[in-house]
């Protein structure tokens, strides 16, 4: 069976941009690797789109491991090339930096490899008509396999294993000797190549773009960097706007260096609002959630295996209502004033024991039982959010013990923010 995975390009336009990254042709993986795939940055708009009239340098960067904006390659108007160490020597680099229409930078991979799947951006430096220095950036370009499943990866590993076996069989046939010792000697002489093939297969599991979030349906708070990026499933987004105490003094607050998605706190006239933004997973194909001590938001009416369900009732401002929802949300009862939020919590492991979760982007978990869970490859920061609930006859309450650390009657929820070490 031929396993084919088609590469899709995800481009986010935050504004009208004069330069654009494109990749041709579409990338396919199977028992024969796609060849001669090019990533190119080039001007694509009208003259009015860009203020640059003469280009001095064009650069392609990508996010790798713990760095953002690591240099891939660039060219300046003196045609001096700079290539980062992680770019394979086999990659062909071409380009030009002069007029707007003649400027381009192209990288061509003779054979596609997994290190191609990264997030790229193009940066162009030059001068406008008044000879002022100008810098423009392309939209982000993310290369990721589409609809990749665990079965797809296992099938690809089977193909790789078959290639290993074919390689060894071919080497034995090429030896054309009658002595078993000669055959063993021939195989041993090529052991390094076989080992490299094995390492490539093992590396499939650890490539950031192939990391899966754990199984089931659930939600997590959205950090300012956005929802997790993965190839196995799509995250959906939404928010709850809470109408908090607005008749008396309002005490809404977050940690000094909060990483929550903005806006968090908002005032409209005399009304105070608090936002919680969510990343919602409908059904992840990943492995079971690891043992530990932490909470997530519930989705789909029940918790993933190993968690217990609980809730917090939040008494919103009684006057004028004003609470609202938008997009995809975790389980809850969402009224114009009051809100009930459902959670999934577990404490079947020590928070000091490292657990494995995807590390491609930062994320939040809720703190449970006093200590944030340690995660492999991530540093953790304690944060909090405070929502000033109704002052008069407050009805905040927990349904049971399975809820994030914090308090009611002026809601406090303690958070754990994870970012790459």
TrEMBL record:
Full protein name: Contactin-2
Coiled coil: 170-200
Apextrin C-terminal domain sequence ranges: 213-418
Signal peptide region: 1-17
Stored InterPro entries: ApeC
Segments of this protein annotated with the region Disordered: 308-330
Keyword presence, Coiled coil: yes
One Pfam family here: ApeC
Keywords: Coiled coil, Signal
Keyword Signal: yes
């Amino acid at each position: 069976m031929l396993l084919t995975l088609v590469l899709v390009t995800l481009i986010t336009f935050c504004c009208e941009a004069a330069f654009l990254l494109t990749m041709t042709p579409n990338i396919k993986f199977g028992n024969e690797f796609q060849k001669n795939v090019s990533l190119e940055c080039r001007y694509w708009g009208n003259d009015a789109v860009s203020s640059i009239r003469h280009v001095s340098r064009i650069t392609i960067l990508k996010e790798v491991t713990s760095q953002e904006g690591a240099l891939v390659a660039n060219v300046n108007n003196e045609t001096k090339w700079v290539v980062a160490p992680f770019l394979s020597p086999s990659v062909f680099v071409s380009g030009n930096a002069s007029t707007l229409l003649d400027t381009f930078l192209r990288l061509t991979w003779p054979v596609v490899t997994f290190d191609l799947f990264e997030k790229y951006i193009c940066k162009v430096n030059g001068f406008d008509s008044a000879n002022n220095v100008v810098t423009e950036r392309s939209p982000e370009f993310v290369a990721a396999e589409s609809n990749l499943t665990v079965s797809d990866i296992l099938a690809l590993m089977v193909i790789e294993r078959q290639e290993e076996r074919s390689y060894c069989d071919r080497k034995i046939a090429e030896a054309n000797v009658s002595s078993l010792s000669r055959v063993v000697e021939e195989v041993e002489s090529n052991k390094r190549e076989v080992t490299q093939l094995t390492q490539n297969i093992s590396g499939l599991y650890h490539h950031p773009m192939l990391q899966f979030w754990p199984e089931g349906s659930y939600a997590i708070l959205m950090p300012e960097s956005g929802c997790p990026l993965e190839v196995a499933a799509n995250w959906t987004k939404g928010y709850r706007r809470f109408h908090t105490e607005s008749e008396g003094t309002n005490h809404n607050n977050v940690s000094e260096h909060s990483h929550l998605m903005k806006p968090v706190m908002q005032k409209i006239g005399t009304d105070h609002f608090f936002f919680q933004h969510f990343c919602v997973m409908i059904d992840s194909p990943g492995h079971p959630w690891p043992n530990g001590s932490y909470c997530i938001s519930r989705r789909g009416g029940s918790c993933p295996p190993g968690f217990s369900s609980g809730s917090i009732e939040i008494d919103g401002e009684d006057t004028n209502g004003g609470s609202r929802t938008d997009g995809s949300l975790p389980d809850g009862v969402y009224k114009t004033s009051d809100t009930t939020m459902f959670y999934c919590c577990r404490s079947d492991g020590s928070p000091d024991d490292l657990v494995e979760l995807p590390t491609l982007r930062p994320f939040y978990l809720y703190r449970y039982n006093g200590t944030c869970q340690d995660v492999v490859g991530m540093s953790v920061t304690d944060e909090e959010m405070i929502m000033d609930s109704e002052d008069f006859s407050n009805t905040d309450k927990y349904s049971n013990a399975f809820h994030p650390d914090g308090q009611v009657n002026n809601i406090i929820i303690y958070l754990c923010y994870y970012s790459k070490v």
